[in-house]
From TrEMBL:
Residues 9-335 form the Enoyl reductase (ER) domain. Belongs to the zinc-containing alcohol dehydrogenase family. Keywords: Metal-binding, Oxidoreductase, Zinc. Its cofactor is Zn(2+). GO terms for molecular function: oxidoreductase activity; zinc ion binding. It holds the Pfam family ADH_zinc_N. It comes from Virgisporangium aliadipatigenens. This is Zn-dependent alcohol dehydrogenase.
Amino acid sequence: MTRAAHYMGDRTFVVNGVEPVPPGPGQVRIDVAYTGICGTDLHVMHGAMDHRVHAPAVIGHEMSGRIAELGADVTGLAVGDPVTVIPLEWCGQCPACLAGHTHICHRLTFIGVDSAGSMQNSWTVAAGTVVPLPPDLPLRHGALIEPTAVAVHDVRRSRLAAGEHAVVIGAGPVGLLIGKVAQSVGASVTVLELDPHRRAVAEEIGLSTLDPAAVDVAAHVREHTGDAGADVVFEVSGSGSGVRLATDLLAVRGRLVVVAIHPVPREVDLHRVFWRELEVIGVRVYAHADFEEAVRLVHGGQVPAGRLISRVVPLDEVAAAFEALEAGGSVKVLLDCGAAA
Ligand SMILES: [Zn+2]
Ligand SMILES: [Zn+2]
């Protein structure tokens, strides 16, 4: 028997014993080391995704672990290998898949939301979703590869280049990761954040911050860029005010990257889009190459994964871990799912 945290609906989790799932052909079973909790998991806990997550359900998609068992026909992986997982499954037949954009498949399955996730000791997945980790990468850091891949994808889509100036609106985990990935391509970065604790974390990892409630951000960005404005703005706050500010900050032919999942339609200053020839770029999850770059950046230290992990909580205390994240003051909270011990 192994242990699994089940979302039971109504903000409740129950941790109990389950039989490990033996890997079928083309599958692997992973002993899970760590699973990170993110905003999506919080939405699930709040019941906002009950149309997709049918209790009792094991969720979780930001993880690291070691291969425990190989199914038939699996090559290129060995028992004991440290790995993470790209939590996507696509149909291969829809127009998006046929165009090569499998990560935005019309029938995309997000593993850990639409199917069983990694908040358990033992997890069986398709071998094709597995991404090997360097043997010397701490498994705790491996649990941050998935959110880092989000940031890598966002920066890649923005076409941000060395010498350009980027503004990140919102310094949650993804905003912080975007800031570090943007620096890794040689851009200068300003992070806007209302919360003083989040600003402090950003400063600690080498990101310049501004409090948009206290300073005239547009004037500051103009001053910093010789009156030009920002080349790229990443909207990570999910707020209407963030969207309004973003178009104000952008330079001629600047790019607005929509990272946050906005729950309602927002007003956009399309006159500004017209006047400055701005671009609006949508970004959703990641492709395989983004995971590989994320592994490289976390392994190389350009993304300081260890400094973004606020707490590690045993799997059995999953409810406390969600509470800690909800209470604020944490960046990443990881569940210790056992395999690192
Ligand atoms: Zn996530
Ligand atoms: Zn498809």
